[in-house]
Each structure stands twice: as structure tokens, then as C-alpha cells.
Amino acid sequence: MEGLFEVVVFLATATLGAALARKLGLLAPIVLVVVGLVLSFVPGFPHVRLDPDLVLVGILPPLLYVAALETSVPAFRHNLRPILLLAVGLVLFTALAVGVVLSALLPGVPFAVCLALGGVLAPPDAVAATAVARRIGLPRRVVTILEGESLLNDATALVLLRVASLAAVGSAVGVADVSIEVLRSAGGGVLVGAIGAVVFGFVHKRITDPLLDNALSLIIPFAVVFAAEEIHASGVVAVVVTGLALGHKLPVLMSAASRLQVGAVWRLVRFLLEGLVFLLVGLQLPDVLQDLDEPIGRVVGVTAAVLGTVFLARYFWLFPVTYLTRLVPRVRRRDGERKPAKYPLVIGWAGMRGVVTLAAALALPLTVAGGAEYPRALFIWLAFATIVVTLVGQGATLPAVARRLKLPPDDPVQDALSAAGVQQQASRAARERLDELADSAPAPVVDRLRRAVEDRTNLAWERLGGTERETPSQAYGRLRQEMIDAEREVFRVARDTGRIPEEVLVRAYRDLDLEESLLRREGDR
After folding, report:
1. DSSP string across 426-472
2. Can you tell me where the transmembrane regions are (predicted)?
3. CA dist 60 to 259, 273, 374, Å?
4. pLDDT score of 364
5. Are 348 and 405 in contact (CB under 8 A)?
6. Cα separation of 458 and 473, whole Å?
7. Which CATH class is domain 1-410?
8. Are the CB atoms for 366 and 165 separated by under 8 Å?
């Protein structure tokens, strides 16, 4: 019961923290980390020591899976080159830079374990990048690159951590060993992910019950990760591959009812897990400080040097790969016109670290070759400090940086024009199908369906107009909302007075709720 109570307390605190963030107009990850830091020193507040397996197998897979489900595969494929340059190249570059700096500052520590910490600190967090980038409205291509980087960079970092840790404890690691490890981890992850996409896609397509579809969707990321871990492949890669494939095919794999429910369920799961993740990061401060027995001057100096290296390495990598790769004609033709420096600047500033960094740091070896000790507590502190400084410092200032750089937003008129053009084609297809089937239904029903198609087409074109006055569709939504409220009240009174049973009220409310949700969705477009 005590463990269950603590879970409820953490979830409730995370929910209240997220509500506070919305009230203050701040980003929830930042507020939750600060709340965790404060609560970590409150006597009597439940305490939990972060388990690396809990994070890497229990929390990370569902968050990566839902992020991959929502990622556009065509956009991901179009931006694959910059994504891989960040998710693989930048992680290796940052890890090497941190390893060199640490080795210089701590000459008695083997370079292999310094490189392992570099791998721990290198990858920006998937949760933080997605939560912050979408919240502040960065351009769509920038968000795609950041999300793609965060989906794949953990795999690179964890492979590097594994190889470097083996070298640190005295195992012989050569080029052949590294190649085999990379092939097994990345290649095995892709293979498991592809098999998972085929198998679970087959099952999804044959399920007609939305509840079963929801249950299967929640099971998939864990099943894929366990299968990948069984053959020592990358669970991160496997989950991402499965999520991308199933997300791309979701319109033909699930019924409309299943898609609506799955979307709602995953929004709730992500909200709770993201809140829990950032709260737990802040709550780890006492544990991190407890074992830290280094002189304060040394801690401050090493921390400042590592933070500076992590921050600068991102820019030292970003600018050359952004502009030097354009010397290749094929790249230049594909990317179009040269992007101004403000794009790599904001992408560089978005390198927030998160809970995976801390979990990976806790997985560092206890001793190095020969059983010798090294300042492991200092290394864990460096991981914690990097998370807090990048998340709170860069995350809090990223909106201001984006505003100052004045990145041009996605053109809403162009989006609306494209949507209206496709909607017109869709309406034409719907009318043609209706004409084919018109003889099988009464004329009033056919006329009603034709009006519904015309209304959807008109709504799409109305969005191209200005917002100075109320459009016919907005007037319709406003009036229909009042009508729905009146209908609800009649059904509620009838239930309270015993004229109808509870089941009738539930069915009526469900239909009215669905219609209101559609009105709100169309009003938010």
C-alpha cells in the first residue's frame, strides 16, 4: 500500500505542477523540475531513488512510441539527413568533446569512463524537445528535426555508453567489437521494430473493438522493447521503427472509433508520464548530493567546464554540418534556398537534457579496470547538473530566443489553401460515391448528405478569409452549441425526475458530446 500511495502522490503532484505551469504561462517540464527540487527537501514527502531500468524500459518506451506515432513519416524521411547528423554525428562529437575535457581535468580517471559519461550527456531528451518545441510554436521543419533527433539519439548514446563501459572495466574492445555491437544494436533494433510493425499492424487491422485496440496499443511499446532486449538489440530503435510504421498506416489499420479512443488514451498517458518524469528528476537531488564528497571548488570547476563543453559542442557541430553540406550539389538542390543562421541557432538552443541522461548515468560501472574506483558520484552529479541547467536555463529562455530570432512561422494561409484544395477533391469523391448509391436511399436522405458535403467544402474555404467578422460556420457553431446545452438540460431533468433511466441519459450525452467535440475542433482550426 505504501508504494501505491507514493505513486498516487507523485501523479497528483505532477498534475498540480502542470496546472500551475499553465496558470503561470510557463512550460510544464521546467516547473515540474523546480517543484521536484523544492519537494526533495520537504520532510515527510515520499522519496524514491530512480531506477535506470524503470526509466529505460518502463517510462521511455511508451513516450517514444507515442512520439513516433505522431511523427510524419514523409517529413521524417525528407529531413533524414539533418536528423541523422544530429542523432548520430552530434552525439558522438559531444561525447568525444566531453570525454577529452574530463580526461584533462581528471587525469587519474581512464578516458573510457570519461567517454562513457560523454555518451550519457550527449543526447537531448525526447520528452523535453517535443514538449517545448511544440508549445512555443517553432516552424514545422525545425520541430520535425528536433523530434527526429530526440527519437534516435538515445540509441546512439546507449550503444556508446555500453561500449565505453566495457572498455572502462577492462574488456578488450576493438574495431570489430564496436562494429558488431553497432550492428546488433541498431540493425537488430530495426529488424525487431519492422517485425513488430508487421505483426501488430496485422492484429490491429483485425480488431473491431476500440477497447481491445487501446489495450493492444498500450502493450506494443513494451512488447517491442522486451523482444529487442532479449537479443541485446536497441529497444529505442525498435520502438521508434514500430511507432513510425504503425503511425503512418494508422488510418487503414483502425476504425474511426478506435483512432479517437487511442488518441485520447495516449494523450493522458503522455501527460502523466511526462509530468512524472520531470518531477522525479528534481526529487533525485538529495541522492545525488549524498554521495558527493569532492571538494566544492573541484565540483564547481568541473561542472562549469562540462556544461560549457556540452553547450558549445552543439554549435561547433551544427554550423559546419548545416552549411558545409550545402557544398554538395545534391544536398543544395534538395534543401532549396540557404537557411539563415537563426535556424541552427534555435536548434542549438533546444538541446535540453532529461531523465534518460540521469538514468544512463546511474548505469555507469561502479569500478573501472582492476577494481579501481573513480569519482562516480561526481559523474552522476554532472549528469544531474546538466539536466537542470539545460532544461531550466535553455528551456525557460527558448521561447524568448525564438521570438528574438523572429523565425518565420508556417504560413497558415498556405496550410488552409492546401487543406481546402484537398477537401474539394475529397468532397468531389464523396459526391461521386453518393451519386452511385443514390438510388438505394430516400431522396431527402441523399439531399441531406449533399448539403453536408457542401458544408464541409465551404468550411474549408472560409478559413482562407479574414477573422474580422463571424463566418457562417462560426455562427452555426455558436448557435448549435447553445442548442446542445439546452438539449442536455432537458435530458438531465428527465433523468432526475425519473422519466428516463440512466442508460438513456448516457447514450444521449454521448451523442451530444461527440457533436460538441466536432464543433470545437472545427472552431479551433
Report:
1. HHHHHHHHHHHHGGGS-HHHHHHHHHHHHHHHHHHHHTTS-SSS--H
2. 24-42, 54-76, 83-104, 155-176, 182-203, 264-285, 305-324, 345-366, 378-398
3. 22, 9, 29
4. 86
5. no
6. 8
7. mainly alpha
8. no
Catalogue the E-assigned strands of 40-138.
none
Give how far Cα 14 sits from Cα of 9, 234, 271, 303, Å.
9, 30, 9, 28
Using alpha carbons, select from 69, 298, 75 the residue that is nearest to residue 193: 69
Distance separating alpha carbons of residues 180 and 347, to the nearest angstrom: 32
Question: Whole-angstrom Cα distance, residue 19 to residue 31?
Answer: 10
Q: How many CB atoms lie within 10 A of CB 396?
A: 16
For residue 384, give the nearest of 355, 349, 364 by alpha carbon.
355
Contact 15, 327 (CB under 8 A): no
Q: Amino acid letter at 34?
A: V
Query: What residue has cell string 517535443?
Result: 130
Q: Which three cell numbers stand for residue 157?
A: 548514446
Report whether 28 contacts 278 (CB < 8 A): yes
| CB-CB contact of 246 with 202 (8 Å) | no
- What is residue 129's predicted lDDT score, i.e. its pLDDT? 63
C-alpha 144: how far from its chain's center? Answer: 11
The rounded Cα 261 to chain-centroid distance in angstroms is 19
The number of C-alpha atoms within 13 Å of 45 and in the hemisphere containing its C-beta is: 18
Count CA within 13 A, CB hemisphere, residue 265.
17
User: What SS3 state is found at 126?
Assistant: helix
For the chain, domain boundaries:
1-410, 412-468, 482-524
Residues of the chain under the 70 pLDDT cut:
1-2, 126-137, 170-177, 335-337, 410-413, 415-416, 460, 462-469, 521-525
Measured CA angle at 406 (ends 405, 409), to 5 deg: 135
